[in-house]
Amino acid sequence: MRAPTRTTRRPRQRARHRDGLPLGVAAGALALAAAGIGLAAPATAALPTVDVVVNGHFDQGNRMMGWYCDPGQVLPPSDAFGQLAGHPTDTSTAGCTQTVNVEPNSTYRLSARVSGPYVFAGVTGSGTTDVALWSNQADWNLLSGTVTTGHDTRALKVYFHGWYQQGPYRISSFELWGPGQPRNSCAPTPPVVGNSPSPSVSPCYLTPIPAVSGS
To answer: Which residues lie in Basic residues bias regions (predicted)?
Structure first.
């Protein structure tokens, strides 16, 4: 009598993708890749370069609009348009300040055109290294420097002033160029004078950088 024959079954091989991966695994990988593409955050467009200072050429409204100045000691001169004149005293440096909106981790370039004895211009509140510039020239002089904001800095305080018991000074421009949101108009407001513990950001709009036309 013949011994019974034992039948051995081979395990069924799973269907494989042509690259060697099981079809189920390959399909899952494709699904995850598609989901990843759908969840990817859109690229953030770079902000344009603008002058974040409001009325930095002192030619809007009564020429002091947007600035917070020592009362009676910083005035528009009668003999020139687009300038301010400071008259320091024994107790005042005849200064003006403005708080401007900025972007974190960004570099801004300050420039101020001044004349007179011991004129100061600068930026504070950067969260890194602030800028302090000065000039002691009778002729017009351009002060310039750069400031880089910290990772959580969204506002800077810009300022200019003379010095105690020194002669009068003049300033014809104050600019701070860097990334910002351009706007379209500025509602005229009277100048803010006197002392305030926390000046607010001016509601006026920013000036976009002029376009350079081809020659």
So the answer is: 7-17
Mean pLDDT confidence for 6-27: 56
Question: Which SS3 state, helix, strand or coil, does residue 30 take?
Answer: helix
pLDDT(58) > 90: yes
CB 116, CB 167: distance < 8 Å: yes
82, 88 Cβ separation under 8 angstroms:
no
What are the tens digits of pLDDT across the range 68-103? 999 999 999 988 899 999 999 999 999 999 999 999
Tokens representing 190 are 């009277």
Identify the H or E element spanning 86. Answer: strand 84-86
Domains and CATH numbers, the chain: 55-184 (2.60.120.260)
The one-letter amino acid at 80: A
> Taking the mean position of all CA atoms in its chain, how far away is CA 205?
13
Structure tokens at 98: 């403005």
What is the reported pTM? 0.68
Round to whole Å and give the CA distance between 148 and 156.
11
